[in-house]
Amino acid sequence: MIQDIQPHVFNNSYDANKTPKEGSLIFSFRKRSVLVKEDHGFSFPRFEDLPKNKEYEFIYMGSLDETDCFLLKHHIYMKEYYYEDIWNLRDDDEDWKPYLLTAVTAFHLSTWYHANKYCGSCGSETQLAKDERAIVCPACERRIYPKINPAVIVGVIHDDEILITKYAQGFRHNALIAGFTEIGETVEQTVAREVMEEVGLKVKNITYYKSQPWGFADDILMGFYCEVDGDPTITLDRSELKKGVWTKREDIVLQPDHLSLTNEMMMLFKEGKITKAIFNEHK
Q1: CA distance linking residue 180 with residue 187, whole number of Å
Q2: Which of 37, 181, 236, 246 has its C-alpha lying 20 to 30 A from 29's C-alpha?
Q3: Which pTM does this prediction carry?
């Protein structure tokens, strides 16, 4: 998955006193696009690559191994560099994956900073906190933390089949049931609600598998497997899905890369590593 970058380490510790130096990675965004150049794949500018004799505002975002990483608060124009949609950088090449995780995390932070330039309570211009990764309002003292959306990925199992879906819009490859946690509900309740809303099924034996940061959409994804409780007849919500079918292990077509929690959950079922016994193990 996107976070599996070992032996590399992404350290998200915040340090307001950090400043860029030679070798520091710089991430500059223009909406959904990040500044890159093509050099046997994509690469990001280093501090020493930036045009000289200009003033820059940097925000420290963490480090990749021993390399400090910074957000540039505005977009710039550089020879040989251009802005590319962050989604188009999606590739699970082992050498590239640490940089992709860092870039997607930078995108997550960039959208959060951009959305909170002004206080939502009093309208005053905000500032970066000095003691932690937060935004503060100097007028009303409101403190704002990075927005992380909890969402679930659900592998619904019936006998020796799993429910494979395709979204009505956007991502075109095979997927599982997915959805955001609403106010006042547990993630287990989210699982049951989303399955009922999207395919009209009741479920039981909801069993947690694994989580994943997904900065493409400011998400923390939580994966669950569950069983159908009763009638397995699918009633598709076509505003959400264009496909929802029971699929045997050997017939599962995986996504084109191995970055997502969804793909890993489908792959495990396809390989016979997820069976009904998982629910007994977790009781």
Answers
A1: 9
A2: 181
A3: 0.90
